[in-house]
Amino acid sequence: xxxxxxxxxxxxxxxxxxxxxxxxxxxxxxxxxxxxxxxxxxxxxxxxxxxxxxxxxxxxxxxxxxxxxxxxxxxxxxxxxxxxxxxxxxxxxxxxxxxxxxxxxxxxxxxxxxxxxxxxxxxxxxxxxxxxxxxxxxxxxxxxxxxxxxxxxxxxxxxxxxxxxxxxxxxxxxxxxxxxxxxxxxxxxxxxxxxxxxxxxxxxxxxxxxxxxxxxxxxxxxxxxxxxxxxxxxxxxxxxxxxxxxxxxxxxxxxxxxxxxxxxxxxxxxxxxxxxxxxxxxxxxxxxxxxxxxxxxxxxxxxxxxxxxxxxxxxxxxxxxxxxxxxxxxxxxxxxxxxxxxxxxxxxxxxxxxx
Length: 355
Known about the structure:
Blueprint: E1 2-5, H1 10-16, H2 25-33, E2 47-48, H3 57-65, E3 70-71, E4 79-82, H4 87-95, H5 106-115, H6 120-128, E5 136-138, H7 141-150, E6 155-157, E7 167-169, H8 175-189, E8 192-195, E9 199-211, E10 214-225, E11 231-236, H9 239-246, H10 252-267, E12 276-287, E13 290-300, H11 305-316, E14 322-328, E15 336-337, E16 345-351
Helix pairs in contact: 6-10, 7-8
């Protein structure tokens, strides 16, 4: 029996690195609004950590989709599955009544935290043996400025952040502003990652599970981002349709070769530290040689919306592709609701308009 926890604030908690973390109000509202999201991938006997005020959501999910799960800790629980692990996730499970014997130690959580640092992409890319320019980690704001001056269009990233936040594009930014923004991240998190900008065509991810010392490929995820790189939604469709979308730009053979190299790299880095689902964000970009695959934009050592999209598609067996995403604001606007609307948030499916 597994106890699930939707804690989307996890990457922000990792940045702080302490047990007592208070998320920004909007993120706290998302946590509450999405508390029942794990019902979509939970087993029939599984349980979910849900705020007491939200427990009536079980009736909505059972009525609309026939989905149900127990609420709160039960002595039969033998496995924990948060959205992501951090000291704050350990605290939330403890408050829910989970005994210390089921929780990871501080040493184990810190090892997962370090593996969640964006610098891990350097090691993954190096092991993949590709010729993609490697990111650079620096604690010197002047180094950020000099890298941008040499090759304009860099992306500057916080070591820990999520959904495209904590990332900014340096193109056209005055050097004094760039230096100030980089200094702020360095002050808060100790360093920044500086990455080459690419002519992005499509965002996608490879989804994996780490268990028993092995890394296993689970499936592909295709997701949408805004112009600034902020995540906006996941495509919900069968795997064959996702592969069809990707192979409009690269060959299936290229996908397989990239996945093989990536799996080997991850198998050497992940199993000793982490058990559970995780994803690697990737990219198809346009180069002078044609379309190419970037095998590791970043590692998400946690559950991702790509896994959620797979679960929703498995439950609903949709005949055409949809986009799943969080929407903020008017709860009466269009879209197929996947969770009861709460806190101003809606998790909805909308038809995907293929280009």
